[in-house]
Design brief:
Order of helices and strands: EEEHEHHEHEEHEH
Radius of gyration: 17 Å
Oligomer: single chain
Number of helices: 6
Distance between the termini: 21 Å
Length: 244
Amino acid sequence: MPTKTLRIPTADGQADAFAAFPDRGERHPGVLMYADGFGIRPVLREMARELAGHGYYVLVPNSYYRHGPAPLIELPEYIGAEVRPAVFAQLMPLIEAHTSERVLSDADAYLRFLTTQPEVGAGPVAVTGYCIGGLYAMHTATAHPDRVAAVAAFHGPVGVDGADLFSELTAQVHLGHAEGDVTPEALGELNQALDAAGVGYTSEIYPGTVHGFTMSDTDAFNASGLKRHWDRLLPLLDRTLANN
């Protein structure tokens, strides 16, 4: 599976990024993948390669490039409960500095870069994200209805308080919630807000999961949750991008 380390021109400099794509000498639909709060690391590269193996060009930017190239902090190979507080103490200032304005400015640069790569076909793209990256994905899809045909967010902080994101959405949406992140009542309110906005979506709690369940290098990992994630994501992309 071919991979590249790239630099994306933005309004504030150069964002380092990782890309994976099929080795077929063809053009493929593009997918912008936002990492979770821990950022680009081996597990994200592996997920990008796995998705690329299904026929997509997958671009994973370092959202916090303004503070330096990834990895911005030294991460253990396994992020367990005993190291999580210290890791987050270093990450939270970066996350808090990444305002909505920065997310939207960067999204424009990322999509412009993605859609001009020689391996990427014409037509709309998809955006997916994990944890805080799920919120970035939703902001990106809302701001670019002409470019984004599908958006998926997994264990992301997307709730009714973000309902203003939904009114401009034209993309098909999947939200995969951790059981530990949202109650059935809160899920009902969220889905009602999506219904009211006329969004085409699926939104569900993944049984037995806690926040971060897709990430195999953390103690939140849930193998059945990761499988369900692929079982939801791949058909969504196939429906919305297959004809590109």
